[in-house]
Amino acid sequence: MSSRVPVLLSSSSVFPEPTAAAFELAASAGYDGLEVMVWTDRVSQDAGALKGLSDHYNLPVLSVHAPCLLVTQRVWSPDPWERLNRAAQLAETLGAPTVVVHPPFSWQRDYAKNFASGLAKVQAKHPDLAFAIENMFPVKMAGRWFVPYTPGWDPTETGFDAYTLDLSHCAASRINALGMADKMGAGLKHVHLGDGTGEGRDEHLVPGRGNQPCAELLRSLSARGFTGSVALEVSTRKASSRAEREADLRESLEFARKHLAPAESATPAITRA
């Protein structure tokens, strides 16, 4: 990997294909490693199976996405703290330095009430891991907007030690990703690279196919002192074939590599009026 920022493939990017396919496709396209989305696929929950795939394809797992989605609320346990602890254990076993975490859903009242203090306790048990809280987005239903997260979709309003910047979520919340990166500051530890049109929904387009400043954000990372990884989190669910899915993943990787400035040629961060 040399000194460049590692470019990972999120296993969610190959859905509806299984986790094992993400390793195969990442190796074929030339990614530096994997982000494993822990979900209902048993392989995504199994450290031994994941280690076997990592060894077989010679691809490290460098981030683990904790099971925070609506469809993963009973993966491992209905208790969100148990799920977070299991995700941390999985990351440590695999040698992944980052655990991606969503803010609590509004209906998870006890979890939300104690999220900051509870997260600090989990962090104390796993001091070598970065628990990177991800920016989310409001949701429109029946013509009205609501925020399904507590205290909100923007984790910088609360303040955490580490963040994941998701560009598709920036588009869905109609904010500029560069501005969100500025708010995250030195806490920016991980990037979910995808694009969106700002139409109020989470699209996870191949970077360059929406209107987010994906290239500018990548070029700014060195000047921001970024030392984490960039995970391509794009939707290929509508791909008509494996060949089309692989083409999208190759295009995404090429985009990331083209615009990620190496540390030795860092340019000043972009300034906005």
UniProtKB/TrEMBL annotation:
Q: What is this protein called?
A: Sugar phosphate isomerase/epimerase
Which Pfam families does the UniProt entry name for this protein? AP_endonuc_2
Presence of keyword Isomerase = yes
Instruction: Provide the Xylose isomerase-like TIM barrel domain boundaries.
Output: 23-258
Q: Please indicate if the UniProt record lists Nucleotide-binding as a keyword.
A: no
Q: Where is the signal peptide?
A: none
UniProtKB keywords = Isomerase
| Domain of life, per lineage | Bacteria
Please name the Gene3D superfamilies in this protein's record: Divalent-metal-dependent TIM barrel enzymes
- GO MF terms on file? isomerase activity
